[in-house]
Amino acid sequence: MNNDFYYKFILPDESIADFVENIGMFHNQSDREKEVILMPDGRVDLFFLQSESAPFQIILIGLETVPEQRNIPPHTIAFKISFKPLGVEYLLQTSIADLLNSAKNLPTAFWDFNADDLKDFDAFLKKIAKKINTLLPDKIDERKRKLFELIYVTNGEMKVKELSEEISWSSREINRYFNKQFGLSLNAFCKILRFKASLQHIAKGKLFPELNFTDQTHFIKEIKKFSGVVPSELLKNKDDRFILLSVLKQQ
């Protein structure tokens, strides 16, 4: 983080932690574009943003399976909610299968937010919390809740067969659910979570596999697949391009 590019992320209240991973913001205060590399992280982002060159807009970004370079225009401010998969299904109440590695604009009055809500992040947090609490379901499918609990606590390292047996839900039905709702298989999603967990180790300078990779070669291959660079280059994080890694380094 530098004076020209500011970002901040906070963890959600425990009452919504099954649905929301974090709520954050960034502000490109400079007169130049800011180049960033978005890496797959298993989250679905809802952005509220505006810049000098573009009016207020609301964008929903689906799950990503490949790294993507984006340029943030000068004087852009954005607030965002990063949803876990259950948040997409139960709060947004939509399928994002058609948004794999893509995004779409939502109506500018979505959830009754507007450009004025970008003036104060603390006020935004309160408004978001109030809105989400009105959308919380009375109950959720216990198999899905348990499935995601196991996936997250194990950083995606449990085999699909093991997950299936643990929650008494067939592998075939689980994959049908994932593909229909999120646009990818459970195995693909788990690999993304394992990559994301590996970033925590890389951020600390650990450039060897700490998780269930076959060997160092496999580890490097997977890191490059999802970030576009090898672990040593990722650690350097030239020009603070990999924001996710920058955030982890601060933790």
What does this structure look like?
The longest helix has 18 residues, at 186-203. The chain folds into 2 domains: 5-135, Immunoglobulin-like (Sandwich); 142-250, Orthogonal Bundle (Arc Repressor Mutant, subunit A), CATH 1.10.10.60. The chain contains 9 helices and 8 strands. Helix 3 crosses helix 4 (160-167). Helix content is 39%, strand content 20%. The protein is α+β, with helices and mostly antiparallel strands. The strands form 2 sheets. A 6-stranded antiparallel beta sheet has the order 1-2-7-4-5-8. The protein has a two-stranded antiparallel ribbon with strand order 3-6. The two termini are 13 Å apart. A hairpin with a 6-residue loop joins strand 4 and strand 5.
Q: Which terms summarize this structure?
A:
251 residues; alpha+beta; Immunoglobulin-like; Arc Repressor Mutant, subunit A; six-stranded antiparallel beta sheet; two-stranded antiparallel sheet; 9 helices
Write the layout of secondary structure elements.
Blueprint (H helix, E strand, L loop, with lengths): L4 E6 L9 E9 L5 E5 L5 E7 L6 E5 L6 E5 L3 E8 L1 H8 L10 E4 L14 H15 L6 H12 L6 H8 L3 H12 L3 H18 L12 H12 L3 H6 L6 H8 L1
Antiparallel strand pairs: 1-2, 2-7, 3-6, 4-5, 4-7, 5-8
Helix pairs in contact: 3-4, 6-9
